[in-house]
Amino acid sequence: MKVWINQGDIVLLGLRDFQDSKADVILKYNPDEARNLKAYGELPEHAKINDTVTFGEEEEDDNIIEFDEVGGEDDIENI
């Protein structure tokens, strides 16, 4: 799954053991989670929480389109 990371987003990184200069994004925190991290002292007080929701962060269960599989392998061979 791909998630867009924007400037100001709060993310959890995992450093690679075999590549010192690279890290992987493990988790992107939503604004509520980031506020909780700040309240628990896990983020500095001066950290600004990005409250804007960008594309891909919203629950879009109502907009899901499912496609049925049509035909089979025999159809491809006849083309």
From TrEMBL:
Q: Would you say which domain of life the source belongs to?
A: Eukaryota
Protein name as it appears in the record: S1-like domain-containing protein
Domain S1-like, which positions? 1-30
Keywords associated with the record = Initiation factor, Protein biosynthesis
Fetch the InterPro entries from UniProt: NA-bd_OB-fold, RNA-binding_domain_S1_IF1, TIF_eIF-1A
Which organism's genome codes for this protein?
A: Larinioides sclopetarius
| The keyword Ribonucleoprotein is annotated on this UniProt entry | no
Which GO MF terms does the UniProt record name?
Answer: RNA binding; translation initiation factor activity
* KW Protein biosynthesis (keyword) present: yes
